[in-house]
């Protein structure tokens, strides 16, 4: 059995110079997932495709052709990305009989053209509506750091696979925090890119005004490489000089565990942050995000709900019905609040290059918990996982969730790094500097999938 490097960049370097075989890596990855996915992260292994893709990479290397920056790198995709020849389930039972996709989603095709090897599709909340990856049809995805805890959602299957060390990269979607929440709970780097920058062609939609697609990785460098490939262009280095930094106060300083706030304070001190910034509409924006999500999602699925409501996951069904019943006046009020909040974020980013906030208010709740106490307040163990991500989604700006360095045995928790539109490179470079300073780190899961 070969030893597969931990990072995408190391795998690609080994394949490109002939020290590693893409086919050998694909076989090893498929075998380890098949034997050790006790986390319930995978919905479908794509063995035949993976080996064919890997063979093409090895053939390119053999004739001296560059197979791409992700040569031989295994990756997985959330089961709402089209994969040629497969049905895109979006986590829903009623899509089991849908026609197979005729081609890959655009970002999947770009990754494969760059040499990456697709090995699996992953579990998710039905129709991407949730923060926990508890799926009535496919079961609950478990956290690789503690299988008795949630992985987060709705991209929890992708996050759990990367967190368990079974693949170095995986794709997810982020509407209200569906990349940032599981990245925080599984101890990974995860990016919500600038809204509209990365193609969503071939990705099953949820809330089109908010939907983005991005990647999970165990290093900022790997995240940057994958993002550039998905973007379809090279990244431009960030402008020189020390970034102007502020911590988000108010809503973002409340209802958060002491550990995450202390970690943010350490980062702020290292980056020489100025006074905190308060976004006055943040609480209202969070409510507006809830309402707009439910309303658009509910209307998207209204005909299916009328035809066969019992085919839906019960939790998803009830929220979609409630959303579809929202009065027009309430939706218009939510849109007005959203516009005001977008302006507040834009104003804050005129005077600051980087804003800091918790990614989740707490580390991963136990699967059997319905509530959790944070800062003396009793919160929903599921709905409030998106407490700090949901309002920021409205702003359309790039946000990177980075795992705080934690003492051994402590469950992961992340910090959001927020920048202006198109400034993903600043996020990657800042995250890399925080890794070098020992302030953020992706640690191997102490409870691996083998033990689950």
From TrEMBL:
GO MF assignments: asparaginyl-tRNA synthase (glutamine-hydrolyzing) activity; glutaminyl-tRNA synthase (glutamine-hydrolyzing) activity; transferase activity
UniProt keyword terms in alphabetical order: Ligase, Transferase
EC number: 6.3.5.6, 6.3.5.7
Keyword presence, Magnesium: no
Keyword field contains tRNA processing: no
Domain Amidase: 29-233, 318-427
Domain of life, per lineage: Bacteria
Descriptive protein name: Aspartyl-tRNA(Asn)/glutamyl-tRNA(Gln) amidotransferase subunit A
